[in-house]
User: Which sequence fits this backbone?
């Protein structure tokens, strides 16, 4: 059931003029809901789409602001069609928890220097609270056929590749896929112990990650005709959920804000290279520096620990 039309606005949570997104808090019935609305880019790779601009009907209303010699400035409305020319992409989180509200609210960012000791004393105990039911939706994709129609590629005991919710699935220049790990640290399938983040990786994972990378390159080339030289392939630390996943983004997609910045994104090639030097203990012995919002519960725990 599509509940977007049931959304009742309460307050603004965040906005980004660069990515042309606005995030709103509201309600659907008695439950909180979060609506993110993003203006979509023009589909410059679609010739049929571009030819629509030859019709005067594409601009139902035009208002001239100014003109000077050969220069003319105007405002206009753009004719839209949800199948051919959608104007916006909408992401809905419903019901939205307080954790969701904190995550999507505008907040100050801090830099964290996480030593192996800080990870063991503070970060790992926090991660344990984010497992189980908190990532059931991931298990639903991996093991219970949820979103099966969206799966681009599946390789048993390796990964599942599918579109990220941030992609409109139309404009290749904004391509955004995510590869979710099927590999466990211990055990098999849903009952096994998953790889939660790069902290769990060591030299024994190098060959798997290399194969995963090459599989991604091949699948994206075959399905979307996008060469590997156009792809950013990276992981996040801290990730948004604690089941290892790899982000696959077209290099022309510049609307992702801080998620592609230093302090958040780590290129998969660099992860593989690091593991060759880090040996048996892998990332568990490395100090990692990353950005974290002040609303994040992990920041609260780290701040309390360092001030104790």
Assistant:
């Amino acid at each position: 059931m599509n509940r977007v039309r049931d959304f009742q606005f309460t307050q603004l949570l965040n906005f980004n003029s660069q990515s042309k997104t606005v995030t709103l808090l509201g309600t659907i019935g008695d439950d909180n809901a979060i609506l993110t609305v993003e203006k979509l880019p023009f589909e410059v790779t679609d010739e049929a789409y571009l030819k629509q601009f030859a019709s005067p009907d594409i601009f139902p209303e035009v208002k001239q602001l100014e003109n000077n010699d050969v220069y003319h400035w105007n405002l206009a409305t753009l004719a839209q069609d949800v199948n051919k020319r959608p104007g916006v992409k909408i992401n809905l989180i419903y019901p939205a928890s307080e954790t969701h509200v904190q995550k999507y609210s505008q907040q100050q960012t801090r830099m964290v220097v996480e030593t192996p000791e800080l990870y063991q004393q503070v970060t790992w105990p926090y991660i344990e609270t984010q497992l189980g039911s908190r990532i059931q939706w991931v298990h639903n994709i991996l093991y219970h056929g949820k979103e099966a129609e969206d799966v681009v590629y599946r390789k048993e005991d390796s990964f599942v590749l599918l579109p990220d919710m941030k992609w409109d699935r139309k404009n290749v220049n904004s391509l955004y896929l995510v590869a979710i790990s099927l590999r466990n640290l211990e055990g098999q399938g849903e009952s096994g112990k998953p790889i939660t983040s790069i902290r769990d990786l060591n030299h024994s994972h190098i060959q798997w990650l290399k194969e995963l990378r090459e599989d991604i390159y091949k699948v994206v080339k075959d399905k979307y005709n996008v060469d590997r030289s156009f792809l950013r392939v990276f992981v996040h630390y801290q990730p948004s959920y604690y089941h290892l996943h790899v982000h696959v983004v077209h290099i022309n997609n510049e609307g992702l804000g801080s998620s592609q910045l230093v302090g958040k994104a780590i290129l998969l090639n660099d992860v593989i290279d690091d593991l060759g030097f880090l040996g048996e203990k892998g990332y568990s012995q490395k100090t990692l520096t990353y950005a974290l919002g002040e609303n994040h519960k992990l920041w609260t725990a780290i701040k309390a620990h360092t001030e104790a």
